[in-house]
Every structure is written in structure tokens, then in C-alpha cells.
Amino acid sequence: MCIIFFKLDPRPASINAYRLILAANRDEFYNRPAKAADFWGPNSEILSGLDLETGKEGGSWIGINKRGKLAAITNYLEERLNPDAQGRGFLVSNYFLDKDLDSYSYLKKVSTEGHLYNGFNLITAEFKAKQDIVCYYGNRGSPEPIFLKPAGIYGLSNSLLDTPWRKIVQGKRHFTSIVNNHSLSSDGLVQELLNVLCNEKLNNPDPDIEVQGEGYNKSMLQAFSAVCVRHPDYGTRTNTVILIDGEGNVTFTERTMLNCDVNKWSTSSFQFKLQE
Question: Is it true that the peptide bond before 164 is cis, omega within 30 degrees of 0?
């Protein structure tokens, strides 16, 4: 499970405005091995965390490269999972490694192979000097990828894009109030967004989650109703905030759990300028 809130603004009006503001949680078993965010790949231009689970090594959940390609994925809440399905995290990593396909073409290709994976939602984007392009595809929704409007605020969890789960509605409202406060410094904005991501308030009962998650036990569905998921051995273990300003400067902040302990966290921040 995961959750992502993001705001797109291709022409930010002030120095304190951003082309992209993104805040995301990765929810996973606490003991699943993973590598914290760092640069990797050809010329060390890709920045992301990496899955180290046996058979899934090299997959990711969110990342960006120095040329402005960004990708993020969430799982789709469903009862029956195919244990032989391909690792969904490779859909993020492969987007960066495939230099021949733009964001839409890549999702078009993925859509022809969607049946090989358990349910997912995938965002791919390109932030370039002349135009920002953001696309979405979910293999439990429309058969075709879509272009997202170049200005807007979106919420994505473990159903289709902007499905009005209560935690999406409440979290999006909180996120919107933060990103519309242009008096915040960059550091202040990051901290406020981390507060959005760390909200453990339950938004239950939520009939939409209960219907889609039929087959899960009640306590797990209750935990899923929060932006920050907390359940024994499973929950939110990584927070990510990505900012891209009008000049192409990127700030990538990751807060990640240490040693499977919800009381121990490490925060890393990376800054770079997009290469045109």
C-alpha cells in the first residue's frame, strides 16, 4: 500500500512556487529489505530507493533522474494476488533505464503487459524546459494511459487516481492548505508535508476501502484508512517529498524507518538542477 499527493503548476507565478510538489508514503512489511534513496544507474543520474527483496532486487517505488524523468507506483488493494506475477517495482526502474520511450509511450507499452502484474497505479512524468508532461495508468482501470492536466492537485492511494477514499479526501485537503501557503520556506514546506504524511488518524469506517478490500481482516482495513499506516509488522516506512521549482532545481527528501522500529528514523536530502 502507498499514498501520493502531488500538485502540478507548469508556470509558477512566484519565487516560492513550484512546478511540482509531491509527497508520498511507501507502506510495506517492516522487515522487507530495501536500500535508502541514493543515486544509481548510468552516470549515477537516477535517484531512488531500491527494493532488495529476493527476486525483486532493483525495483523501486518512487524516483527521479537528472534529466527530469519521474515515476511513482502504488499497489491496488485486492484480495487475490498472483504469487508468480512480475515485480511491480521494476515498472519504475525500467522507466528510467528505457531511454527510447517518453512517459506516455512507456505507459502505452506497460498497458499491453498489465496482465503480467498484480494491481498497480503508475505515474510517469517528464519535467523539461519547454513543457512538463505527467501521465497515469492503472491496470485495474481504463485500458489506455491518460495525460494529466498540467495544473492541478491529485491524490492517489490503492485504488484508481482520485478515488474518494476518506484518507485521500482528508489528506488532499491538508496537502492543499500547505502547498497554497506561499510564505513557507523550502525547508518549512518539506517539514509541513512530512507532517501530512505522518498523520496516523484513522478515517474509518470507509465503505469504499471495505468493499475493495473484502477478504482482509478488519484491523488491517482500519489501519489502511490512515494516511500513515500503522499495523503490527506492516505500515508506512518511508516518506518522500520532491520539489521542483521554476528554475529546474530539485529537492528530494526521504525519511526512512531504521531497524523495523517505528520510533527510529533517518532523513536524507538531495539537491540538484535538472539537465536540459
Answer: no
pLDDT value of residue 175: 98
Question: Residue 165 phi/psi, 5° resolution?
Answer: -60, 150
Contacts of 84 (CB under 8 A, 6+ apart): none
Question: 202 CB contacts (<8 Å, ≥6 apart)?
Answer: 222, 223, 225, 226
Does the global pTM surpass 0.85? yes
Amino acid identity, position 101: L
Residue 150 CA to chain centroid, in angstroms?
A: 18
Query: Which one-letter DSSP state was computed for residue 223?
Result: H
234: β partners: 29, 231
Average confidence (pLDDT) over 158-168? 98
CA–CA distance, 67 with 84 (Å, rounded to integer): 34
Long-range pairs, 228-231, Cβ under 8 A, ≥24:
228/25, 228/197, 228/198, 228/199, 228/200, 229/1, 229/25, 229/27, 230/200, 230/262
